[in-house]
Design goal:
GO terms for molecular function: exonuclease activity; ligase activity; RNA endonuclease activity. The chain is of the alpha/beta class. The protein is built from seven helices and 19 strands. The protein is globular, with a radius of gyration of 20 Å. The termini are far apart.
């Protein structure tokens, strides 16, 4: 009797599906790639053909130039040899998808990165019962329990209002996190212009072109220092302490990341206002998802693999760590 999932092959550089002659999120160029979302550790340029959601393809084209391939809308099924593939929302960033593969009477869901929290900039995670669930484990330790997102955004606004002569400089990943934070601020009635680093302009414009309302965004370098007092300025995490930030008016340095739960990380980055806002599932959400889907096997692709595998084993759930290479935390 053949083992479950024998028709897909985990390799260090990605997951290969021989019957479809396709790779999922490969770390190097391949003839055919199924891409879960647009972050650079999952979506790389140079593939012969890319299958992804329309939004992910648009993100890849913004980053890498024109892509050869096929857009697959949520819920649409495509046939790849003897394998059918369907893309369903992952709730990670705009266009992010889980890839649902069916072959030989088995269903395997490759989730990519995902979260279970609400996000005004992307479709929510859609649970799909399956035989094998391939999960991330970026925050796969019990210490990682993310607080309420709204409460963290309220802390940001409180700091802004309490310091009208300063600006709040928020480090946020340029794809997904920045746009989500802006949208959350808008939901809380913050209608003032938000000032952004030049590295964020293309992706923020793309989000707006794809229907995500971010309100008025202004280049932070297009205005005077005085105009930035009492304002929110957003930049990539790496720009918080570089020369670019020196022209800002006594900035309160903030960073939006699940890693801000770790105080040492905040201190290392000279972050005055750590905001625990993550686009990944925390420990409770990871384990709740496994319980909900009830797969026969759990495959853990990257992150804190050992703890989640151990948790499964104590509950008689078969689990294995795949140890894929090339995946980063992206300052989540």
């Amino acid at each position: 009797m053949s083992r479950i999932g024998a028709w897909i092959e985990p390799h260090p550089q990605g997951i290969y599906v021989p019957a479809a002659d396709a790779w999922i999120d490969p770390s190097q160029p391949v003839p055919r790639a199924l891409v879960t979302h647009g972050h650079a550790d999952h979506a790389r340029g140079g593939h012969g053909a890319v299958l992804a959601t329309p939004e992910t393809l648009a993100i890849m084209e913004t980053r890498y130039g024109p892509q050869s391939g096929q857009s697959v809308a949520y819920g649409e099924t495509v046939s790849l040899g003897d394998v059918t593939a369907r893309f369903v929302p992952a709730g990670h960033v705009l266009g992010s998808a889980q890839i649902v593969l069916e072959h030989k009477g088995e269903r395997i869901v490759v989730s990519g990165d995902y979260k279970r929290r609400s996000d005004p900039t992307c479709a929510p995670f859609e649970p799909v019962p399956c035989d094998i669930f391939v999960t991330e484990a970026t925050f796969g330790l019990p210490v990682f329990r993310h607080p309420d997102t709204g409460a963290e955004v309220d802390r940001l606004l409180e700091a802004l209002h309490a310091n009208p002569d300063r600006c709040v400089l928020v480090g946020a990943y340029a794809l997904g996190k920045a746009q989500r934070l802006i949208a959350e601020l808008r939901l809380r009635g913050h209608d003032d212009p938000i000032y952004i680093h030049g590295a964020m302009e293309r992706l923020c414009t793309l989000y707006q072109e794809l229907g995500v309302d971010l309100g008025e965004l202004v280049s932070a370098t297009a205005v005077s220092k005085e105009q930035l007092r009492g304002r929110i300025v957003m930049c990539p995490p790496g720009a918080i302490n570089d020369r670019w930030s020196r022209r800002l008016p006594d900035p309160i340095t903030a960073m939006a990341s699940g890693w801000m739960r770790v105080r040492q990380r905040a201190r290392q980055r000279n972050v005055e206002l750590p905001l625990v806002v993550s686009d990944h599932a925390d420990w409770d959400e990871l384990t709740a998802t496994v319980k909900e889907l009830a797969p026969q096997e759990l495959w853990v692709t990257h992150g804190r693999e050992e703890a989640l595998v151990h948790w499964c084993m104590t509950r008689q759930i078969k689990a294995r760590a795949l140890a894929l290479v090339g995946y980063e935390d992206e300052d989540d």
